[in-house]
Design a protein that fits this description.
Layout (H helix, E strand, L loop, with lengths): L6 E5 L5 H13 L4 E5 L6 H11 L6 E7 L4 H7 L5 E6 L7 H8 L8 E2 L5 H13 L3 H25 L2
Parallel strand pairs: 1-2, 1-3, 3-4, 4-5
The structure holds 5-O-phosphono-beta-D-ribofuranose (RP5).
Length: 163
Amino acid sequence: MSSTPLVGVIMGSDSDWPVMKLAAEALAEFDVPYEVSVISAHRTPQRMLDYANSAAERGLRTIIAGAGGAAHLPGMVASATVLPVIGVPVPLKYLDGMDSLLSIVQMPAGIPVATMSVAGARNAGLLAVRILAAADPALQQRIATFQSDLEKLVLEKDAALRA
Ligand code: RP5
């Protein structure tokens, strides 16, 4: 993206991208500039710390971190940045994503991670938009319109059942 990224979308492996691209798509829908990186807590620990340590001074406002299995990336990034971190549990072949979810959600007091549902990357993107919108009335208005459109869609589907 051309403008300075406000949201960092990171993931433990490129194999997480089919899930994590839903976060990127949600950010793009609201014209929020973002960056995407593969950063592994276990395979590239120094790169993870460098990213987390420099994120705020580079202008990022929020980090969305997705990982699967022993999913330590969101929590470790949260420990090394002052920015809000949104965690996305990526489901792998075994355990239906429960391993990823439990690895991310059960953080010790003091280091919060906003944990999404398993594979909930779209909501991660939308939550990042809401975080930015807290200080951006125009973006708030776009979220209100988005929610109103969602409501209309449900009502149309409801009506179509009886058509
Ligand atoms: C995690 O290990 C990644 O986030 C990914 O979900 C999982 C498997 O990675 P690959 O072996 O596919 O690279 O750290």
